[in-house]
Amino acid sequence: MAEIYFDHVSKSFIYGLKRQTVLQDLTLEVMQGEIFGFLGPNGAGKSTSINIALDFIRPDSGMVRIRGESSNEAKSRRHIGYMPEQPRVYEQLTPRELLEFGGLTSGMSYGNIREQSEYLLEKLELLPFIDRPVRTFSKGMKQRVGLAQAMIHDPEILILDEPMSGLDPLGRMLIARLILEAREKGKTIFFSTHILNDVEMLCDRIGVLHKGRLLYCGAIQGFQKDFKTLEEAFVKEITDRTAGEKA
Ligand SMILES: Nc1ncnc2c1ncn2[C@@H]1O[C@H](COP(=O)(O)OP(=O)(O)OP(=O)(O)O)[C@@H](O)[C@H]1O
Ligand SMILES: [Mg+2]
Fold it and tell me: Which residues have their alpha-adjacent CB atom under 5 A from ion ligand 2?
C-alpha cells in the first residue's frame, strides 16, 4: 500500500471572474521508505497538491490517502511531519520552546521531547542556539528550525515543501543528511524542490508536474535520458512543452 496516494485529484481556483484549473487528474503514489522528489516550474501546482494532502484545501474531485486513510480524516495527519514553503513560527520563542510546544501537541513526554530536540538541533547545527529567540536567527537558521519542528515527533512520513530553498550549500547538506538518515530508518519523504542537484543526490523517484498535469513519474534516469544533468533534461522538457502549447 502506498504511504501517500493521490487518487485522480483535480482542483481549480476561481479568482475574480476566471476559473483556473490548477491540478488535472493527478494520480501519484509515494511508497514506504522512498525519497520522492516533486518537481515542476513555478505555479505547476506542487504546493496546491501538498496542501490537499494535508487537508488545508479540498480537491474538486478525487482524494488523497495517507496510509490508506482519507486526508479528510484528522487521524491521517498523525503520521505526517510537514514543513511549509515558508515556515512561520512564534519568533519570540526559542528552538527549545518551539520544539517543546510541537512535541506536546503530538502527545510526547518531556523526556522524549528533550532527546529528540537535541538530536535534531545537533544534526542541524542549531544546538548552540537552542535558547535564543528565533527572531534573532538568519533566514537559513529559521528554515532549519522549521525542519526540526516537522520532525520532532519522529513521523513516518515527511512532507516538505521546498525544504532547501534559501539555504547555502552547507545548510542544504545538513538537511540532505537528515533526510537520508530518515530513509535509513524506513521513513517516507515527499518533497518539492527546484534544486535539481539535490534531487540527483537524494531521490529514489521523481514526479514532474507541469501546469497541473503529471508529465513523468519514475526513476530519475527515465526522465534524464541522454542529458548530462537532470537540470538540462528539465529545462528542455518544460520549454518544449510550453512552445508546443503556444504553437
Ligand atoms: N488560493 C488561491 N487562489 C487562486 N489561485 C491560486 C491559489 N493558490 C494557488 N493558486 C494558483 O495555483 C497555481 C499553482 O500554485 P502552486 O502554489 O501550487 O504552485 P507551485 O508549483 O507550488 O509553485 P512554486 O514553485 O512557485 O512554489 C498558480 O497558478 C497559483 O496562482
Ligand atoms: Mg510552491
Answer: 46-47
